[in-house]
Structures are given as structure tokens and as C-alpha cells.
């Protein structure tokens, strides 16, 4: 069996769009949000309130963007396994995804001040290792191998079926089912560490696993073809209501805020993903020279983004303003441009272009 999968332009467009959001997400950290390791110095106390705005921006991003990355990656995994077979499929994953992990450990992390030896030492002492942004690549390798082992127990991969999109009640019920797993994985994170075995922030993993699973199901049952405006409306309402719930809990007692996101993670990840998928499917299901180029270079831009961010931040630091939002814009725009420009060179470099 060798089924061909239609290459949807809008999924390619979502990938480069999310890559830009990821870079801006980390830019918010550089400008004073959640630490990234090379943040700009603190600003005057009178302007420090803008740090909260940057943290909110990061929280909104974190509520869905990596989950959607896992969904899109999983959507293409079945056809890839069918086409290559298990052995070649796993080999390809280690080359295409494992190589960026090694590049991050040996080159990128030391460049931004995260020493290779100290990182390995921490791993042998605590089981934690900082893979930078390539934690996503490492996690995707593991998810892909587990999936390939699962389907290898069948005589063949199941044929695609034309089944209806899940009912709204089942989507909501599925989101509720994730809540206890969110708390279990957060406990594992608190006990084992933030980068346990290279898996960053285990508290978020139930949503990642769920979206990876849903991506496989979406391909199998052709759900993306059935995605409608109704699902987009339900999705954005799920996302908004979940966020309102968190803000309400925070207003009642700020102690709730530290774990309240565990209650809503499934709703925000699934809800916003449905909304973005529909919007891009409806309005951005096309390509041109620049969208093709952005799609082609998005993966390399994701992997090498820290080089752009670190360089821009260090050059800008002596000139920085006392306004975090201005710093965010001044660092973010050139960082996005440089990350994609650098990736354009990488994607034309012998050997590297075979990976990226």
C-alpha cells in the first residue's frame, strides 16, 4: 500500500507563521518576559509593568503554538511511514531531526552561553539536559518511533476512512480528560526537572501527545477536509473561555495562577488549533514565491533562531530603551529577518540542505 497525501498549501503557511510566532515568543523573553538565558538588563521600575504584558503574550502563545506544531507534524507521519517503511522511516527521523539536536548541543547552545560540557555534566547528575529549541525535534523523534512500533504490529497501516469530524461534545469531553494527565505530568516535571531527559516542561506534554494523536487521526479520517466555520467558532470560543477562566481564578487568588493553566491546556491547544487551521484553510490556501521560500526555510529558522536573537540582543543592549515593548519590537523584527536569512543560506549549503 502506498497512499499519496495531498500537500495542503495552508499547512505549509501555518508552519512558517508559527515559526515567526516562536521567534517573537522568545524575543518577549529577551525583552523581559520569561528568562531565555540572555535577557536584556532590567528597566526602570516605572516601566517594569510592561514585563507583565510580555509574559501575557508568551502565555497566549504557549497555550497553543507547539501543540499545533505537533499536530501538523503528525498529520504527515502516516504517509511517510507508508512510503519509506519502518527502518528507513526511523533512520530518516534520526537524520532530519537528530542532526539539529546535535547542532544545538555542540554549536548553538555554547554560542549563547550554555556550555556543552556543563550541559552534559548536568545530564549525568540529574537526568536533565537543555536541548534549546530542538527539544521539539527530540520529542518528535520519540513520538515518531513509538508510533512506528505501534503500527508495525499490524499487517499493514489502516486505509484512510471518510468519517465525520468529531462532535463538539466529544471535543470538549476529550479536553476535560486531559486535565488529570496535566497534573500527573507536572508532578513528574517537579520531581524530575524542567528538562528531564531532554523533554522540556513535561507539564505541557499531555497536550502535545494529544495533538500528535489527533494529527494522525485527522489524516486517517480526512478531518481537515471537513473543517468548517462552525469548528472555527467553537475553537475560538473554547480558547477565549478557557483564558477568561484563568484570569478570573487569578483575580480571585493569585496562587491559583501557577497551576490553573493545567485546567485549560486541552481547551486552548485544541480550540485555537481548530481556529487557525480553518482561517488558513479558507484564506491562505495558496502559495507564491515568498510563501514557498518561507515554508522551505522555516525549519532551519526555528533551529537557528537563538543565534539571531542572541546576536541582535547583544548588539542592541548598549542602546536599549527603558521601555520593554519598544525593546521587544526592536529586537524581534531584525531577529525574525536574520533567522530566516540565515536559514536561506543553510538550506543552500551542501549536506545541511539535506537535513533542513
UniProtKB/TrEMBL annotation:
The keyword Transferase applies. InterPro entries: Acyl_transf_3_dom, Glucan_succinyl_AcylTrfase. Keywords: Acyltransferase, Membrane, Transferase, Transmembrane, Transmembrane helix. The chain crosses the membrane at residues 16-33, 53-77, 97-117, 129-151, 163-185, 205-221, 233-250, 262-281, 293-313, 325-347. Residues 9-343 form the Acyltransferase domain. This is Acyltransferase. It holds the Pfam family Acyl_transf_3. GO terms for molecular function: acyltransferase activity. It comes from the Bacteria.
Amino acid at each position: 500500500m502506498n497512499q499519496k497525501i495531498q500537500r495542503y498549501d495552508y499547512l505549509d503557511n501555518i508552519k512558517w507563521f508559527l515559526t515567526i510566532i516562536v521567534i517573537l515568543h522568545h524575543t518577549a523573553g529577551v525583552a523581559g518576559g520569561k528568562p531565555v538565558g540572555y535577557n536584556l538588563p532590567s528597566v526602570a521600575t516605572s516601566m517594569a509593568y510592561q514585563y507583565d504584558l510580555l509574559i501575557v503574550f508568551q502565555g497566549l502563545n504557549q497555550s497553543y503554538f507547539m501543540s499545533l506544531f505537533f499536530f501538523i507534524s503528525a498529520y504527515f507521519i502516516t504517509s511517510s511511514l507508508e512510503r519509506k517503511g519502518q527502518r528507513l522511516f526511523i533512520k530518516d527521523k534520526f537524520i532530519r531531526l537528530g542532526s539539529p539536536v546535535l547542532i544545538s548541543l555542540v554549536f548553538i547552545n555554547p554560542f549563547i552561553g550554555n556550555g556543552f560540557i556543563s550541559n552534559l555534566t548536568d545530564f549525568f547528575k540529574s537526568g536533565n539536559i537543555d536541548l534549546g529549541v530542538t527539544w521539539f525535534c527530540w520529542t518528535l523523534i520519540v513520538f515518531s518511533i513509538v508510533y512506528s512500533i505501534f503500527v508495525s504490529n499490524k499487517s499493514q497501516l489502516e486505509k484512510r476512512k471518510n468519517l465525520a469530524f468529531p462532535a463538539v461534545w466529544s471535543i470538549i469531553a476529550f479536553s476535560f480528560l486531559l486535565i488529570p494527565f496535566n497534573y500527573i505530568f507536572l508532578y513528574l516535571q517537579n520531581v524530575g526537572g524542567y528538562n528531564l531527559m531532554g523533554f522540556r516542561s513535561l507539564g505541557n506534554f499531555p497536550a502535545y501527545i494529544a495533538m500528535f494523536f489527533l494529527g494522525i487521526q485527522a489524516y486517517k479520517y480526512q478531518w481537515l477536509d471537513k473543517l468548517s466555520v462552525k469548528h472555527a467558532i467553537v475553537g475560538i470560543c473554547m480558547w477565549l473561555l478557557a483564558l477568561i477562566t484563568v484570569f478570573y481564578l487569578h483575580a480571585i487568588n493569585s496562587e491559583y495562577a501557577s497551576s490553573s493553566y493545567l485546567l485549560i491546556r486541552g481547551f486552548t491547544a485544541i480550540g485555537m488549533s481548530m481556529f487557525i487551521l480553518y482561517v488558513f484553510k479558507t484564506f491562505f490556501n495558496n502559495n507564491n514565491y515568498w510563501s514557498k521560500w518561507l515554508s522551505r526555510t522555516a525549519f532551519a529558522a526555528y533551529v537557528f533562531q537563538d543565534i539571531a536573537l542572541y546576536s541582535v540582543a547583544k548588539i542592541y543592549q548598549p542602546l536599549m530603551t527603558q521601555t520593554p515593548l519598544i525593546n521587544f519590537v526592536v529586537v524581534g523584527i531584525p531577529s525574525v529577518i536574520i533567522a530566516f536569512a540565515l536559514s536561506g543560506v543553510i538550506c543552500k549549503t551542501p549536506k545541511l540542505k539535506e537535513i533542513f
